[in-house]
Amino acid sequence: MISTSGIPQDLVERLGHASSIVVFTGAGVSAESGVPTFRGQDGLWQKYNAEDLATWQAFERDPRLVWSWYDYRRQIISGVDPNPGHAAIAKMAAVFDNVTVVTQNVDGLHDRAGSKNIVELHGNIWRARCTRELTVFDFRECPLSENPPLCKECGSMLRPDVVWYGEPLPMDAYERSHEVACTCDAMLVVGTSAQVRPAATLPLVAKHNGAFVVEINTHYTPISALIDTTLIGGAGEILPELLDLISACSDDSEDASGTAGGVKEHSGV
Ligand code: BV8
Predict the structure, then answer these.
(1) Which domains does the chain have, with CATH numbers?
(2) Which of 65, 197, 202 most suits a substitution to test ligand 1, by most atoms within 8 Å of the C-beta?
(3) What is the per-residue pLDDT for 8?
(4) Most CB atoms closer than 10 Å: which of 134, 187, 241, 249?
(5) pTM of the model
(6) Are 33 and 109 in contact (CB under 8 A)?
């Protein structure tokens, strides 16, 4: 049976039997909030060259330019809200026993939507790091009053607490994301072009370890042929309907067996 948006019932039932699920997200999950994606026709990178902005070398060469790009993005993000896709992901905690959100995004919208178990692979645009003391702290001044912003403790330049190209991912975040990719029953891959590594390897790690991997994207990507299935459409439309279908599927199986079936098994204690 196919739902109104074309979500196959067997996919719903397969997800409905998952106990632990990873939701792996990219910029596409925030697109319907009004945050520009990185690639694609109106992507951020279309106007700028990644190497000119999101690398340590670019920052050393021209910190004011790099900070003006982040200031521009912070002003966009400060004016938007989580969309129904973020909200549906947050509600999954009530449906599955274990939900981990592994995001490449730095916009903080999963946290604002109420998701709890979040792994930020590429940092967070609302934190800054002192380039001398390496201290990290919340930094929400928007727009910037000075460019580049300086550390109040030592006067050194601050940098955004994000992972630039050529920089390693935070070890704890990457190890945690790899661990849940290896052990989850299912992974939803939402709104990523699957081009940035090592993040883009996580869906293949999950698939290799036996997880049911479903991609949700407006377009096919380089991993579409390597995972179980791709639902083509907007995350803000597909995710709420998918969650409703899984919840209904779970209710039906409870009614049929008189016990908690499918997802969110309740311990007998
Ligand atoms: C590292 C933080 C090593 C900063 C970001 C050649 C081959 C392979 C790899 C490499 C290579 N050359 C270099 C590398 C490594 C490089 C890399 O992968 N480059 C790529 C571009 C080829 N990776 C790195 O440098 C990483 N570090 O490798 O370090 C190392 C190890 C030890 C010691 C020293 C060094 C670090 C990468 C992190 C870079 N930082 N962000 C900032 O944000 O300013 S990455 C940046 O891209 C964002 O985080 C973004 O999230 C991420 C990935 O992009 P997507 O999220 O996928 O976004 P994109 O726009 O591309 O796609 C959006 C998708 O959504 C599309 O598919 C679209 O169809 C879809 N969509 C749109 N609307 C919707 C939608 N889907 C659903 N609904 C919608 N409504």
Answers:
(1) 9-34+82-122+169-257 (3.40.50.1220), 43-79+128-162 (3.30.1600.10)
(2) 197
(3) 95
(4) 187
(5) 0.93
(6) yes
